[in-house]
Amino acid sequence: MAQAKTFRFSDVMILLGDGATPTEVFAAPCGLTELGMTIATDTNETVIPDCDNPDDPAWKITDITALQMTLSGQGVLDRVARKAWEDWAFSGSEKTVRWVYDVTAADFGGYYQAPAILTSYQVTAQRGQRATVQIAITLNGKPAWTAAV
User: Fold this and answer.
1) Is residue 147 a contact partner of residue 109, using CB atoms and an 8 Å limit?
2) Which residues, in sequence order, are CB contacts of 58 under 8 Å at separation 6+?
3) Quick one: what percent of the chain has pLDDT higher than 90?
4) Whose CB has fewer CB within 10 Å in the chain, the N or C terminal residue?
């Protein structure tokens, strides 16, 4: 039996672009201890009758209408990262982001990149514990895939 080739936490990252031109620099905000990436599919259903046997149950056909990628993260609230998250949240603007698989090309490494919107930013603090943060990012359009070199 072959063992699965897995990713370590440090192999998966959310990177935020700084908006610089001509060369944008990407960095991972400190403090996130959980990361998530979701590709959601919107669909429409149509009921298709059986023309030869109209009394038989009809079958539903599903058509894909849209795709969307979202990123999420949570962890401890780093003081420097807090400033970056809040600057983005209050800006009301897009930022270029990357979802990175930081492994070799042979292991299918690379990254998805697209403009994105910070759709949720939440800070929680509880007495006796460190403050935490939860973020949600929605990519604005189809992300481009760049394979590792």
Assistant:
1) yes
2) 47, 48, 49, 50
3) 99
4) N
